[in-house]
Batch of 2 targets.
Target 1
Amino acid sequence: MEDPSRLTREFLEELGTKKTVGEIEELRVKYLGKKGTVTEKLKSLARLAPDERREAGRLLNDFKALAERELALKKEDARRRELASKLASEAIDVSLPGIFRRPGRLHPVTLVMSEIIRIFTGMGFTVEEGPEVELDHYNFEALNIPKEHPARDMQDTFYISSDIVLRTHTSPVQVRVLEKKKPPLRFIAPGKVYRCDADVSHTPMFHQIEGMMVGENVTFANLKAVLEAFLHKVFSPQVPVRFRPSYFPFTEPSAEVDIGCIFCGGAGCGICKGTGWIEILGSGMVNPRVFELAGLDPRNISGFAFGMGMERIAMLKYGIDDLRLFFENDIRFLGQF
Amino acid sequence: MRASFSWLNEFVDTGLGIEETAKLLTMAGLEIEGVEEEEGVLDVLTRPKDTLFEVNVTPNRADCLSILGIARELSALTGAPLKMPPYKVKDEGGPEINVEISDPELCRRYAGRVIKNVKIGPSPEWMKKKLEDYGIRSINNIVDITNYVLIELGHPLHAFDLNTLKGKQIIVDMAENRGKKITTLDGVERKDLPGDTLLICDAERPVAIAGVMGGADTEVKEDTRDIFLESAWFKPQGIRKTAKRLGLGSESSYRFERGADIEMVSIALDRASYLMREIAGGKPSGAVDNYPRPFRPHIISVNTVKIRKLLGAEPSNDEIFGILKRLGLNPEMDGDMIVAIPPSYRLDIDSEADIVEEVARIYGYGKIPSTLPCTEMSAGGLSEKQKFVYQAKNAFALAGYNEAINYSFMNINTLDTLGLQMEDPRRLAVKVLNPLREEDAFLRTTLIPSLLENLRYNFTRGIKDIRLFEIARVFVPIPPVRRVLIEGQPGQLPFEPLRLGGCFFREKSYLFWKEPEEDFYRAKGALEEFFDAVKIPDRDYRQGTEPFLHPGKSADIFIGGRRAGYIGALTPTLKEAFEIKAKEDAIIFELDLDLVFESLPGTPVFRQIPKFPAIERDIAVIVGEHIKAGDVLAEIRNYPSPYIEDASIFDLYKGDKIEKGKKSLAFNIRYRSTEKTLTEDEIEEVHRGLVKHLLSATGGILRA
Ligand SMILES: [Zn+2]
């Protein structure tokens, strides 16, 4: 029986020269395979005396255990190295751009409008619509603005014929809904409106949202609370809100609603013309005359109505300083929101 | 209306400072839009600079178009007493002139007075100052006094040179009865006044357009000695109509058309006469006052319980009474009932609601609490159609398109540029009578003209990626038959169908990851994403027919057999017309959103996830170049076998490896049964049948 320590030395020497998983596997077969060195040596033990045989067997088993352990370690090591080099060879330049489709943006008017719609629908308001080309009757007469009424000067009107106009406000939707549906009602009516006017602060078309709530016990105090809640959501819960008397032929009492200037915090600046307040919407209790004109009995119901311009709110919200940008459709503008 | 702080103080001494006064008025409905320091004061030491309020007087408050009116409001708000300027005038002799009113409805009162021996000259400095503060140029003392009283008391006056009036006679009558010709003070000769224009005439001819503007012939000049001073009340609607028609708005007409104070007629006359005596040394004679039916006030009764109920606030009966009293509404109270009698200057108050408003505004909107309404619950929210519109907007935004909003106007000539046929219904557009520009005279019948302008605008500014969409109504004057049948609407108002339009232009050279050569498919992809998002199941792209689109690169889109729109590349001519100087195509599309909405399927119904495996087969056919891949795919999908679950195209080849004029199309077909696992033999049989059918239907051959 040769010296088992020599066998171990030879094995370890040989193992040291092997690099790849394949070579290591070949070495394993050579020593530990079915026809490998260990098997051969075990067979040759039969010729020895029982004592010697036991001792030699023990040494061979020790060698086998050692070889298996060393092979496994070396193999794992080789596998790791091979994987690493494979991955390294597959590397790509991760700094190149991703395959990315830049989403487009919705128009700031749409964004503001849908936010306002969300707030009011959350309060149980429905969303109504009416035609943009409107009868003079709905745009003016039924809103208590007869022909030759000075209030018609408040709105420069595009005419299609003597009795058809481009609606100058979304208020005609009030009348159309009052004629069609039974109170109690609460709805808003967003849409395009038109005024025959174009300069730095006017465009011939812009967007409004009208709102109305009608029922048996709707009060001015309700008007205040609903609009305050709304403005606190659109701007901030801290923004001061004030109501001051004004005039609209279709509401009485009428109120102009101001918020504390969000740019100067009420101290007075160029945007609020030094007043510390910014006019944000018009409102009021529905004029009983409007109920009558819509065929309802004003003794049994009351209501409030309000209207506001979307561009104005968008300008305040996003700090846009030129109204005309809304309709130039410059991608560099539209892409910002 | 501009009002100086010091002038207001002459009428009412509130003891309040400038800012407090401005705030008080603003919060009572007379919004102070601007506070300015007086300009052009030379010697600040002898006279401090005055402060000017720019007061926004709403159309209902004609009574506040004067210093007196605003002061009256301040008096009501603070309780400080109102002081009237002196107006009692010493006059001598009879009226010397006769006044006749033809229609007392249009002119309910006409007063006047002859003032003799006036010395025309410059006005005193204090008067010039007040006129200039208001914004009126000083002319001479007589004209200035009429303007001064107009600002002070709010009542318009007119002075005639007495000696130019013929026959000591004033007749208030219509143009149709007295002649339609007059040269007005502005030097314009008006030859054909409308017959219903109310005129002031002497015995022979018109001398003024009532309430609007005087005549040049009877104007007060440097050499005038005697004057006739007019103070009258004209019906607001008549004045407004005349002023509008003639384009002649004036300080006078502005007040008359909003409603002047009929009881102020004689006071204003006296006040001006007083000033003319004091300043111009004139000798007033007795006044004439033709006032056939004196003012009869409204009597309005209101229940204070109702006021409290409507406001949701608790002003007491005494508070309400006090407010109405301070406003001069002469209230009388009996329990919860109050009867108010508004004075002649408050023409705007004629109903209970008007009283509520007065109470609310003086009580103070700030004192009314904020109380959220208690009401029945109801489901709010958007309608299905409205939700659909937002879905569409989001789908196109996700596909990379920015949302545009254009004016609803179009230049009708663009339709020629588009090459629309004469009988194309889009040429029938709603016309605006008074457009701002001729290019904006028509309402859009298609969104394309606007989107082409957007393309031009962005392209000429060097933008290389222009993807825009717009959702808007177009305006169709003559209702299409199907809508009339459905809705039975009267045809008076145009229909306002909802459209979606879009444009796509992209310069690809700078894109790092290359995209397919044909931009058409990119744009079509966005439409497909949208259709897929809203679950429109079958849409069909057929050969395009729009004259402005490349015939070989455009398609008409059909949904459920109805034409829902089109998509395609602009013709080179159109591209040039809109300055798109690029080799890339510009793709545009437009959809009838109403039709798409009507075509939406209902709620999806769950189908069982397949229990049995699918088997796939590929097939490549060589067909003529003109054969459309979509048609071949439709043949596969429509092949009558229950086992064909789905099919898709995965390759298109044209080139050296196959015959010229042909192309190879490769399809992947998925077979599955819902009842069993299909055997190779079963599939083979169906597949063979399908191949045979396909080859005969397309005239193609199998690609080896
Ligand atoms: Zn500010």
Note: Residues A 261, 263-264, 268-269, 271-272, 276 surround zinc ion (CB under 6 Å).
Target 2
Amino acid sequence: MNIANWGKYPTIDARIRGFRTVGDLKDSFQDAATLIARGLGRCYGDSSLWSTIVSTLKFNRILAFDAEEGIMRCEAGTSLEEVLDVAVPCGWFLPVTPGTKHVTLGGAIASDVHGKNHHKEGAFSDHVLSMEVMLHDGEIIACSHRERQGLFTAVCGGMGLLGVILNATFRLKKIETAYIMQRTIRAADLDEVMDLFEQYADATYSVAWIDCIAKEKKRGRSVFMLGEHALRKDLEGSQFAERPLEISLRKRLNIPSQFPSFVLNRFSAKAFNFVYFQRAKTERSAVADFDTFFYPLDAIGHWNRIYGSKGFTQYQCVMPRDTSKQGLRSLLNIISWGGEVPFLAVLKLFGKGNGNLLSFPMEGYTLALDFPITPTLFSFLDSLDKIVLDYGGRLYLAKDARMSGEMFRRSYGNAARFIDLKHQLDGSDKFRSLQSERLEI
Amino acid sequence: MPYLLILGARSDIARAVSHRFARKGLNLCLAARRYEEADRDAKDLEIRYRIRVMTREFDALDFEGHESWYAGLPEKPLGVLCAVGFLGNQKKGETNLTEAKKIMETNYLGCVSILNVIANDFEERKAGFIIGISSVAGDRGRQSNYFYGSSKAAFTAYLSGLRNRLCRVNVRVITVKPGFVRTGMTEDLELPAMLTSSPEEVARDILSAFEKGKDVIYTKWYWKYIMAVIKIIPEKIFKKLNL
Ligand SMILES: Cc1cc2nc3c(=O)[nH]c(=O)nc-3n(C[C@H](O)[C@H](O)[C@H](O)COP(=O)(O)OP(=O)(O)OC[C@H]3O[C@@H](n4cnc5c(N)ncnc54)[C@H](O)[C@@H]3O)c2cc1C
Ligand SMILES: NC(=O)c1ccc[n+]([C@@H]2O[C@H](COP(=O)([O-])OP(=O)(O)OC[C@H]3O[C@@H](n4cnc5c(N)ncnc54)[C@H](OP(=O)(O)O)[C@@H]3O)[C@@H](O)[C@H]2O)c1
């Protein structure tokens, strides 16, 4: 069966096996010499692709929920959407959430995902109390920040390469309402938006959408977005006051699968960036339900089809705080003059990284750019790699489909330690993905 | 505690149906072989939908035990969904009667044996509903799975007769005929993506058939037309087809 992840690139003919019990999974381990776990396939590239895939989606039970303490335990295939469905009505929220709720708990841990609150609240795994992992020989091992810590810090961010995460216990965050007090501020250029990030370092959520096509003086022109969980008193007098923990369901707009890729030529990307930027003028402060604030793209269903059949990739890099400004300038410079047009560009200031071996975030700015795949794209991205490396940065594995093994080893300081540990724990090299082959992990 | 009884509760389709009905606030009894595994599902459903869920060990092939098994339930269910099924290996069954028997007994005799007991109770109480999952495979026998197909054909006919008998006492019987569904049963088969639905889609159709008072449904709906075409192909031609 042909299968690809969110970017629709690359594609592989794979055998997919589901499992409903731990016993089923053990059987799969016995049948297949090599395999990789896959959740909802929301990584952009090839992290969860291999000739044999074990899908965790049928292994999705919520095992325990303490609504007093806000602690939940779920099987790894449970999606963050399912977690929210149960937690929000009881006044709890995800401690950290990526920009889509259609990811699994296992995927969130394996990529050590971050959210708009990274500068204050860290990565998802920082809120994981414990988990169980099945190693290559079928043995199930529990680990946490305290117990088998070495395994824990390697599995969080470990891209499924050490074993299959079976379940995890994690802490939720208390909320009074399902709404967010949102503020948008326009920034005229890169300096201005970076100043805003510094100025609003105390805000719980912050992110900026950058117009990458704007040149010269306007380079880095952006819309800076802030958010705080709305308190009950914030909603007083509004239509949401009566049922503060409920939000009504919205209809999804689906993008037809045959969206031709020429629709996204330079002109239309420009139009999109322009429209987005203009709209921000009129929207300053607002109350938004959490779906609108955190998951604006989920409302459009399969928006990835917009790029057409050739697919796309997301280039997400992070550079240390002290070199970020220089680095971002160089990147935006090449991008605004280059022939490759990113459709979306997002900027965010991370807080300190955690000790997980392959975790992506480090203190500094992260820039994420979506590019439709063209024959010249990869050599263009290679030139961006050089800049990122020069400034001491790295790329996010969950978004990557093309970086070189060399780039990986030089940019991830703990790459060698991770590979050593993989030799120890997975001597037969059972867990493999197209990505791990490419990066020689 | 009024509840819906689910036989074969660990099947993918039954799990999806459980979620649908649970979301409506109905309590459940999950009956399955290896019911310790069903305990995880029970806990999950309780947390998600704040309903009550109990589990029972159930083997469709334990014909003699069915009467006392049903009598042992703490109270009688509002209705029952039967999702028990076994595709088996057609080729093996052609030379191995044990396999062929297992297919026929699971899909037909086992279901009939327990549903008889339940039907008698519902008839006496003049209340209840029965949802049986049969299959489009029962609409016409094909070389690739005719042990399965013929036992589903028999089950379809059984449900039709039962409906005829029980409609007098206001007990509803719904026959569900899924086409291709991506589940544990079909995991190793190459199914045509265009014609294959998810267990969740099947569950949605089942709930809507229940709410609309339908007797027989195909799911997805277009299977009604596909099967209509398959059924009118003259036998002279059909027998030569590679289906
Ligand atoms: C629209 C969109 C927005 C996004 N926004 C963000 C964001 O803001 N921040 C962020 O950090 N990420 C973001 N992502 C990326 C996404 O959060 C990650 O790629 C996440 O890992 C996807 O989870 P998944 O369940 O789809 O896993 P998959 O994509 O299927 O797999 C991802 C990796 O996890 C591994 N894996 C999955 N399940 C298990 C398991 N049970 N045990 C072991 N390994 C496992 C796989 O082997 C693979 O290496 C975004 C993605 C999209 C599509
Ligand atoms: N998938 C399809 O394409 C498709 C198409 C048409 C109809 N159907 C029908 O849909 C129903 C559900 O099937 P599914 O697709 O969800 O596949 P499934 O997961 O394989 O479900 C079959 C279920 O039947 C149970 N079962 C088998 N023998 C049993 C026995 N002796 N006693 C008790 N339970 C027994 C199995 O229990 P265990 O979990 O203990 O093994 C399993 O839960 C079946 O009736 C099937 O024939 C499926």
Note: The two ends of chain B are 47 Å apart (CA to CA).
